[in-house]
Structure formats: structure tokens, C-alpha cells
Fold:
Amino acid sequence: MRLIRLMAVAVILAVALAATPASAADTIKVGAILAVTGPASFLGAPEAKTLEMMVEDINKKGGILGKKIELIVKDSGASPEKALSFAKQLIEEEKVLAIIGPSTSGETMKIKNVAEEGKTILLSCAAAEVIVNPVAKYVFKTPQKDSYAVIKIFEQMKKMKLSKVGVLSSNTGFGKAGKEQIEKLAPEYGMQIVANEVYDKAATDLTAEVTKVKASGAQAILNWSIEPAQSIVIKNARQIGFKGTIFQSHGFGNIKYVEAAGPAAEGVIFPAGRLLVADVLPRNNPQKALLMKYKKDYELKCHGEECSTFGGHAYDAMLILTKAIEKARSTDKEAVRTAIENLKGVVGTAGIFNFSPQDHNGLDMTSFEMLTVKKGKFVPLGK
Amino acid sequence: MNIDLFFQYIVAGLTYGTIYAVVAIGFNIIYNATGIINFAQGEFVMLGGMTAVTLHQILPLPLAILAAVIITMAVGALIEILFIRWLDRPSVLRMVIITIGISILIREASLHIWGEGVRALPYFTGSSETSIRLGGVFVSPQVLWVVGISAVMVILLNVFFTYTLPGRQMRACSANRDAARLCGINAKNMVTLSFVLSAGIGALGGSIVSPITYVQYDSGTQLAIKGFTVAILGGLGNSAAAVGAGMILGVLESFSIAVLPAAYKDVISIAILLLILFVRPSGIFGSSEAARLSEF
Structure:
């Protein structure tokens, strides 16, 4: 009796094992580690929706090289530890061709080595420059570098004759990386950092922090975070009567942050990709057509929810991956990786990507536009 | 530090403190009736805020908050009846695990109902940038609303526990459950009532602080940690002491920012919690005599 049972199990196992490779050969497995829930859900949720939308669209059109894409989304909740175990799972068990994400810089840095050792392409949707500097062979990223964002902001401050800056940042990978860039670049642009505060990513009230910044005599506040806390900073700063200009990082590119901050968000200045102002771009802008299409598709899929630059980063990651697969005419990891390094002039939501073996981001300074908030909407600054 | 700045920190501290105190009071009510800590208290706060925001789309603000409080009270009653009422003299550890389980259940259910987005009620008066100037100090009107409503709540609770029959019955149950039952008090109903009451207070608190702190499916956990610290600091079961302890913690956190990097703010509260648990488990306002007699 026991022998029969054992044999039955063996047969089932054999069938199961034989069945898996057959189905896997027909599809291209792409993993995604995104912060769909948790403190960075403003990033991860639109990213996941964007990827689902794109994969559905690609598969409906017959896939790439005749193969359908199989998307495996893992919700990390912005926890680097979870991202790490998902990365191992995707690489070792699912044997994916590439991983899109993670959403945040801290998570990406945690899994950078895992992707490198597992020889699996990683297309990060996070901003910190350290992700691609120094260059790792298999690691790419689609958002603009944070150093470009800092330079753009400092140039704008110079134009407005502001030199005393109060810096606030959250205790996340993104906040930390931004803070380092700010400290590094400030002397070069003649900026004096008069206050430099780090707050917890789950902070619910920052009155005491902004009070300290105001007392330091700052002419402007520069806040660097991706959490709802960036709305709280603006609110609290205005409530305690801070009259200076408030600058935010490119992490502010989701209209929900503006809604959360209400009228206090008026006049906030931040650098961002052109997606947020796609409607008002001149007709001859090379990105216009793509941006309008993504915006329309996303808002249709998500029942009118406005698209954000973060969803755009996932869009770019999937776009680059599909272009590279087409270019390589293969789904071999090594061939696709080389193809990405040789992609030039790919029009994405964040800008125009020109990759090279030395540059795994492919974007330059022109990919940023300075935006501001006017009557609860994003508009290009000075227009 | 000039005098205006000093008071600005005080105001910030009182704001934090009131929010913590509201959560701590919820802990205390259930502790008084049952001798246990309800680790789902933070979730009641979140649930109240979320429900109020949703209802505000169709109802005017005061009605939306009222309805949210009633709905959360019903959830509190339901939870007690489903998970706790039928247990016969459960151990403290068992109750801790049950309430932690309930908190996870509520959190995950909220994630499915409302998604991961951050919500908030509008400011009751003015907007996110309005502030009242008192000398050189700026105060958001919402802070005054929170402090005012919380003060009224504490007074009403005291009246309820001192002068009304159900309030006194609840106190009798907490003093000695067996003796209370011998006097004809239905102890099981009193436990249900304590869940209803603390759910209602949590929900009201969640609604009034939501313009300041925002509310998200997982914001209950953070609040529960701070509320728990304050409840312990004040002495478990004592609501007036919780208010005092909340203010102390809030002001300490606020001033810690003036001298330390802001990231150390939460270290202060956790350090205080540990210190109190080691040195004076009865809390700064509690009597060590009473603490020795209690089960928890």
C-alpha cells in the first residue's frame, strides 16, 4: 500500500516537472518587485498598474518575437528585506529574464549584488545615482539621476537669488542619497546649508522640524523624500508662517501629494519629467505623442486616476526591455543585456534614453523640466 | 532659543501629545474592563478616519464623523462578540495574540476596501495653510479642534465612569469581576460595552486628527505604539494620567528635535517606554500597589 502511494507521488512529481519547462518555453518571464503597498505606494501602485496594462497590450498584439510576456509582480511594501527575498526567488526559482523595479532606492541597493551575481537584468524604477554609479553590468535604471535634480534646483535658486537653504530629508534610501548629493553640490553652486534635518519616513507631523529650519534663517526649504511626509512638510511650514519658497525633489511628481497638501502646495517648485505637463508641451516636442498616449491609456485603465511620473518609470523600463529583446532577436539574458547597452534615441516618458556601457541610465539634464503648482495643478515654471 | 521658538516647540509637542493621548485612552478603557491590552486599538483609529473620509463624499462633515464613529463602534462590538465573548477566562497571552490577530485582520481588510492611498478629511476651519497667530506662535486651527474635542471627551468619560450606572458597573467589573457578578452585573456585557466605547473614541480621534496626520490602511500600527507608550507612561487604566503622559512625551519629542537630529524623535519614545517598564512598571502617575495586584 505504502509503495503504491509512493509511486503515485513520484508519477505526479514527474508529470509536474515535465509540464513546467514546456509552458515556460513559450513565454518570456519578467519579474517585478514593486512597493504596491506601504509608505512608497504612491510609487509602486502606479508602476504595477502600468506594467499590467503594457503586458496585456503587448500580449494582445501577439507578444514579442512570437512569445507572450509572463509578468510576475511581487509587492515588497518598500521593505528592502522583502525585496531581497523576492529577488532571490525570482532569479533562482522563476528564472526570470529581467526584474523591473524595485520602486525605491534603498530596496534597489539591497538587491543590486543579487542581480549581478544571478546575472539577471535589473531595470530599477528608483532615482538614486548610486544605483548606476559605479556601473554594475546587469543593473540599469529609468528615472533621472538625483544629482541632475539637485543641479536643476540649485540653478533655479541662483536665478531667484536664494542662497540660504534649509534641507529636510526622510530616512530612506532616496532621502539619504539626495541629502548626500545636496551636501556635495551645495558649495559648487554657492549654496549655504543652514539647517539639515532627517525625519522618519512614517512621520505624521513635522511642525518641530520646520520650526527649526525657520529659526535657522533659511530663505528656502528643500525637502527630499517620496512619502506623504513631503505634503506634511509643506503644510506645517506654511502653518508656522514660513514665507520662503519651498523646493521639492523629483519625488513630488504625483498629483496626490498636491491634493494631500491642499492650498499650501501652491508655488512649490520641483524638477520632473515632462509627463506631468504633457498637455501643454509644444506640438513638435519628440516626447509629446508618447506621453499623451500613455496618459490616455493609464487614465482609461485606472478609471480617471491621474498618471504620475512613477508609473512612467515602469513604462520606460518595460519599453527598454521590449526594444532590447527585439533588437537582440533573442531572449538570451546576455544578448538582451548587450542590446540595452547599445540602445540609442529611445523616446520614453522620462526623456530620451541613450545607453552605453558606461551609462546605464541614458538620460541627460534636458530630461528635467522645472515645474510648479498653480491652482492645484502642475504647470511648467515661468509659463 | 528665543521665547517664540520655545512656545512653537511647546505647541508642536502638545499637538503630538493630544494625538497620543486619544489613542492611549482607548487602551485604558478596555484595560479597565477586561485587564487586557487591545492591540487592535490603533486599527480602530484608522478605521474611524477612513470611514469618515469615505462618508464625507456623500454626507456633511459632522454627520460623516458621527456615522463613522457609530460604524466603528459596531465593528468593535462585532469583534468582541465574535472573538472574545465566548472565551472562558482566557490567559493574558492568549488575549494578546487574539488582539494582534484582529489588528492584522482589520488592516488587511482595509487594504482591500480602500487600497493603499493616503486620505484625509478637510480642515474643519480654514485650510492646510491657515494658522492662528498667538503672539509670535503659529497654531493651526485644527490643533485647537483636536485639543478641544479631546478635552470634552475626557471630561465626558470621567462623568460617565463616575456618575452613570453602566459606567460604575464597568468600574465594578474591573475592580473585582466575581464580586460584580454576584451583585447582578452582567460582566460579559460590560466587556462588549468597553470595546464599543473604545472603538468609538478611537474613531472620533482618527477623524479629528486625519487632516493633520493623514490616514492610511497601516497608519494604526504607528499610532498604537505611541498610544501604548503613553498609556504605560501614565499608568495603565488611568485616562486623565494618559493625557498628562501624552503631553510629556509630545513635548519631549518636540524638544528633542531642537537639540538632536530629527530622526532620533522615535528613539526618545521607545527609550522612555523601556525605561518605564524596567524602573516603574506602574507608570509615573500609577500606584505600584495597584500594579502588583493586576494581572498584566
In short: Chain B has a mean pLDDT of 86. Chain B touches chain A through 45 residues (CB under 8 Å). The domain at 3-124+135-293 of chain B is CATH 1.10.3470 (ABC transporter involved in vitamin B12 uptake, BtuC). The two ends of chain B are 43 Å apart (CA to CA).
